[in-house]
Amino acid sequence: MKDQHKNTLRHLSELISHNKHLEEENVQLQQQLEVVLRERDKYRALVMRNKLEEKEHAVPAHEPDVLKFKTATVLFADAEGFANISEEMDSGQLVDNLDAIFLELHRIIDKYELKNLKSIGDTVLSVGGIPHKNITNPIQVVLAAVEIQYYLNIINQSKQNHNVWKLRIGVHTGPLTATISGRKKINYDVKGESVNMATRIRSYCEQGQILISESTYELVKDLFQCEYHTRMPVKYKGDILLYYVKGIRPEYSLQHKAIIPNRAFSIRFGLIQFTDLQEMVLNKLERELPEHLYYHNIKHTIDVVTQAELIGLGEGVADDELLLLKTAALFHDTGHILGYDDHERFSTLIAREILPDYYYTQTQIERVCDLIMSTQMPPTPRNTLEEIMCDADLDYLGRSDMVPVSSLLYRELKEHKKIKSWNEWNRLQISFITKHQYYTKTALSLREVNKQKQIERIRKLLDSGEEE
């Protein structure tokens, strides 16, 4: 019994000890659990705080851009009597024909860089001059309208269509507001008086015709044949005149058919478009030209463009040559964006990159690049246009502002470590100006006398040992 009692006590003692050990482990586990719970709460608080901060600093949803345009041209067209046509034709044939026609209309619209905003059923709404502003948008819209009507006339001459596809086209040029939205697919929504005006003008138009407002007429009348049609009353403005466009003027159309522009049209268009090209290039120069260009800057570029046109007109060059001269003058110093030395060659690279976007042919681009390279020192012009270009580039030598301009060139050359002192500069000027010659009669008559005066002035400075 004693042994049994001892065993029972020992077993009980072991159970008590084990229980105590379990209680200690439980306490440890409880402490560990509390630590884990505290860490969990910290983590949850951190996550919540991060979410709140992300929400607070989250990038807002992309909002549409609202842009205002002072001069855009709206084309609004519809096929009058479309419902009646639908009843007369087989529905399948109607859909197929309509799809083919609208596919061609879109091609024409894209060709002239218009934005097609709506093509639903029998209605087309397109705008020229958005999203990139340009001065040529009235011409491009009217060109598109002429080609569209020509295409539909061809369709109507086929036996199966029986002269049924006829559009009324209304065109107006004026201000509008465009809301641009979307990322992958850009959407345009235009509003304003110009849209309403084009819609109203279309209602005054007869089938198969193009009717334009007075504002559009004033911008395209030199290139297109237009006939007065009627007056349209406009609230708060009185009546505005409306004109039918009959086609391109014979002198500007291929084979005088009033449909396809010829080379003379392209030259006139290029001279008008030059305003847009010049604005783009000058903006590029302002953004990208390096510092320390006190002479070869935007002002010099504008001077050379102005003088190239002035001398070109004085020498009686044709419009196509005048366009090449002005373009070369505009680009001749853009190469300074890429490097100071050999900038003429760099300028030709920039011209080759940009000019195709402005409808310049490869032949025109090559001639522009030749004119740019003719300004390399020393000048060695090979033809009349190169002589005009060289005279325009160094026109300042015979101008009344030669001294301040020359001072800017000295400052620039010194900054680029090309020259050291005024005396060295004056000696260099005497040598250069004495050897320099103006090539054209226009430049000789305008600048040669004053250039000789500048030579005498610099010689006196050198003889006296004075610095400017």
Highlighted features:
Alpha-Beta Plaits, 3 domains, alpha+beta, eight-stranded mixed sheet, Hypothetical protein af1432, 15 helices, 468 residues, 15% strand, 8 strands
Instruction: Tell me the span between the first and last alpha carbons.
Output: 133 Å
Q: Whole-number average pLDDT?
A: 83
CATH topology of the largest domain: Hypothetical protein af1432
Overall structural class, as computed from helix and strand content, comes to alpha+beta
Could you describe the 3D structure shown?
- It is a single chain.
- 57% of the residues lie in helices and 15% in strands.
- The chain has three domains: 49 residues; 197 residues, Nucleotide cyclase, GGDEF domain (Alpha-Beta Plaits), CATH 3.30.70.1230; 198 residues, Hypothetical protein af1432 (Orthogonal Bundle).
- Strands 1, 2, 3, 4, 5, 6, 7 and 8 form an eight-stranded mixed β-sheet that branches.
- The protein is an alpha+beta fold.
- It starts with a helix and ends with a helix.
- Helix 8 runs antiparallel to helix 9 and helix 14 runs antiparallel to helix 15.
- About 2% of the residues have low confidence.
- 30% of the residues are buried.
- The longest helix is centred in the first third of the chain and has 56 residues.
Could you give the topology of this structure?
Elements: H1 2-57, E1 65-78, H2 82-88, H3 91-111, E2 115-120, E3 123-128, H4 137-156, E4 168-181, E5 187-191, H5 193-204, E6 210-213, H6 214-220, E7 224-234, E8 238-248, H7 263-288, H8 298-314, H9 319-331, H10 343-354, H11 362-373, H12 384-393, H13 402-415, H14 422-435, H15 441-464
Parallel strand pairs: 4-6
Antiparallel strand pairs: 1-3, 1-4, 2-3, 4-5, 6-8, 7-8
